Amino acid sequence: MSGDPFARAEPLTLMAEPRAEGEPEMATREGVPARLADGGRRGTVAAANTAASALTHGRPSSATPPAVTLEGVRVSFGDHVAVRNVTLAIPARQVTALIGPSGCGKTTLLRAVNRLHDHTAGHVDGSIKLGDIDVYGPDTRPELIRRRIGMVFQRPNPFPAMSVFENVVSGLRFNGVHGRALLRDAAESALRHAALWDTVKDRLHQPAVRLSGGQQQRLCIARALAVEPDVLLMDEPCSALDPIATAKIEDLITRLAADVTIVLVTHNMFQAARVSDQAAVFLLGEDRVGELVESGATDELFNEPKNPRTRDYVAGRVG
């Protein structure tokens, strides 16, 4: 394809979803997220302004209020408790890795953060807050939480019947964003943030499933970024990828953390060491229920763990 890469983009005709009283604005103009509306400059400027007083090693210091706070969280399915007693503060604009063996509740906990258990048999106890918002509060709209907390799953899941372009803007369309120019700007900005624009700019209207596995995963990341979430949850995003694609995703994760808080589930200890600022270790208790054992700065947790169970896990003696 040559010429305008958006030449076949159709104008959107959906009406914007009405905003509930007291619900914060999601956009600066006609539903376009602020960082996308100015081509990414707002997030960059905000990060630069913060850096002068609140950054340590290029990331916010511990004095910065956490993006997500969990207190006494327990997730159960009927009589089965999957994970319990999780109290954890997720720092803003950092990468926090949830590590531990399979079956100890990491993904279950991740899905609880943006209410993905609402339509399953899962029951969440305790408190989860996004900033000052009670995620499970009686007046909290789940769709608002999911706009602000994005999710990238273990395997790439682009919508197979949609083009690359339509995949990226699908979340915006769902939220009632309309206007051809706005969608074009949002798509390009999200694809650039996902380091995919140069690869797909001449293939925007081809089926997304024609992309490689690594490109599809970056497309899913772009789709999540298009609505400008505050937090991005990533459930083993590299587990189905080859080493080259994995390296690209890891590089993308570290760069995105300048603007977005990232919570990453991984079984790969080396990956956690490479990309995360903070880490939390989950292990099974004697009754086979997942529990948080220790959390802290990744370097400290790997090199000087305080809990003997953590020490055994990072040394490879258990798990």
Keywords:
single chain, alpha/beta, two-stranded antiparallel ribbon, 23% strand, globular
Your description of this structure?
The chain has 319 residues and is α/β, with parallel strands linked by helices. The chain has 12 helices and 12 strands. Strand 3 and strand 4 (80-91) form a beta hairpin. The longest helix is centred in the N-terminal third of the chain and has 14 residues, at 41-54. It is globular, with a radius of gyration of 20 Å.
Number of beta strands: 12
Number of helices: 12
Q: Give the overall silhouette.
A: globular
SSE string, helix = H, strand = E? HHEEEEEHEEHEHHHHEHEHEEHH
Largest sheet: 10 strands, mixed
Percent in strands: 15-25%
Helix content: 25-40%
Rg from Cα: 20 Å
Q: Distance N terminus to C terminus? A: 50 Å
Concise synopsis of the structure shown:
This protein is an alpha/beta fold. The chain is 34% helix and 23% strand.
SSE topology:
Layout: H1 34-37, H2 41-54, E1 55-56, E2 59-60, E3 66-77, E4 80-91, E5 95-99, H3 106-113, E6 122-130, E7 133-134, H4 142-148, E8 149-152, H5 164-174, H6 180-193, H7 197-200, H8 213-225, E9 231-235, H9 243-256, E10 261-265, H10 269-275, E11 278-284, E12 290-297, H11 298-303, H12 308-314
Parallel strand pairs: 4-12, 5-10, 5-11, 8-9, 9-10
Antiparallel strand pairs: 1-2, 3-4, 3-6, 6-7, 11-12
